[in-house]
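Milestone 3.1: sequence recovery, worked example.
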């Protein structure tokens, strides 16, 4: 699809590392699938992956981790 950030690139399937911070806890999730702009590098996460990520992050935080680094899959 056309990138809505730079309007000058197109996106293709790729991976990125995303992080969530809440109440002093930091959860980093690597190899998140989505679409990456070939021009500006903006990462678009798909909605299914976004939900799965939120679940993983909430679980890690409720388990009491101050810093958790996870793989998406
Ligand atoms: Zn772009």
């Amino acid at each position: 699809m056309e990138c809505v950030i730079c309007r000058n690139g197109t996106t293709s399937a790729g991976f990125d590392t995303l992080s969530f911070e809440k109440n002093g806890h930091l959860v980093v999730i690597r190899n998140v699938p989505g679409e990456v702009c070939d021009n500006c590098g903006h990462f678009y996460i798909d909605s299914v992956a976004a939900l799965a990520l939120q679940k993983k992050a909430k679980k890690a935080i409720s388990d009491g981790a101050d810093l958790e680094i996870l793989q998406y899959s």
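The helical segments are 47-62. DSSP finds one helix and four strands in the chain.
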